[in-house]
Design goal:
- The protein is of the alpha/beta class.
- It is built from ten helices and ten strands.
- The strands form two sheets. The protein has a six-stranded mixed β-sheet, sandwiched between helices. The chain has a four-stranded antiparallel β-sheet with strand order 2-1-4-5, covered by helices on one side.
- Strand 7, helix 7 and strand 8 form a beta-alpha-beta unit.
- Helix 3 packs parallel to helix 6.
Length: 234
């Protein structure tokens, strides 16, 4: 579905991605691992056209994806839930969710909301509550729900477990798996490497803007290099 080939991108004169190549196939969860500053978030932002690549190719569903506006990428079905959640704290839960569906006819909102509330019942209970008054876990659920309102054909998640309690992290990963089982491919950037690899079909390790390792989730979990660098094992 999604293919990156030798993609370069960065911020002004600073090049962060230095020839990144990988793919996400239909039905997969693919995770990107790497240390802070390796280029994981930059990769997602480049796919979403928030950052424009300076070289390389991105293909989506067999066609070259032009370096265009972020809303155009969203309309193609590539939806990003960003690092830090980025909800609107002074808007209600319902208003936050409806913003996520603005690119589609409002007539589809009711069915999408029902689907989202089936995954996140707490959001249904809090629908009139201001986003900024939710707990960290609830805000992450809201960010995921907002992305799902865009009817993603590819869901990109940037650090969905960051700052959350272990029980909430477990719940978030269960929901990610459930969304994937419903047919939505997931590209996951996650600092909790062990959890990410446990649910991922495949993974890639980014080191200073380049892919250094790749394999199935199980293969990377068993890799001595990954275990030393990202799982805290000697």
């Amino acid at each position: 579905m999604l293919e990156l080939n030798n993609v370069h991108a960065g911020y002004g004169p600073t090049e962060v991605l230095k020839g990144v190549s990988f793919a996400v196939k239909a039905g997969e969860i693919v995770t990107l691992l790497g240390a802070n500053g390796a280029g994981k978030s930059t990769t997602l932002l480049t796919i979403a056209s928030v950052i424009h690549r300076s070289a390389g190719s991105i293909r989506w569903q067999g066609e070259e994806l032009p370096a265009t506006t972020a809303d155009s990428i969203l309309r193609r079905g590539i939806c990003l839930s960003p690092e830090g959640r980025r909800i609107f704290p002074r808007m209600t839960v319902m208003e936050n969710l409806l913003i996520g569906g603005l690119i589609h006819p409002a007539s589809r909102n009711a069915a999408k909301l029902d689907h989202i509330f089936s995954h996140f019942p707490i959001l249904a209970e809090r629908r009139k509550q201001m986003g900024g008054t939710l707990s960290g876990g609830e805000q992450q659920m809201l960010a995921l729900g907002r992305a799902l309102m865009g009817e993603p054909k590819l869901l990109m998640l940037d650090e969905p477990s960051l700052g959350l309690a272990p029980l909430v992290v477990e719940k978030i990963f269960q929901i990610i798996q459930a969304i994937n089982r419903e047919g939505t491919p997931v590209l996951l950037v996650e600092q909790n490497a062990r959890q990410a690899l446990r649910i991922a079909h495949r993974g890639y390790v980014l080191v200073t803007g380049k892919i250094q390792l790749s394999g199935t989730g199980a293969e990377l979990l068993a890799s001595d290099e990954v275990r030393r660098a990202y799982l805290g094992e000697s």
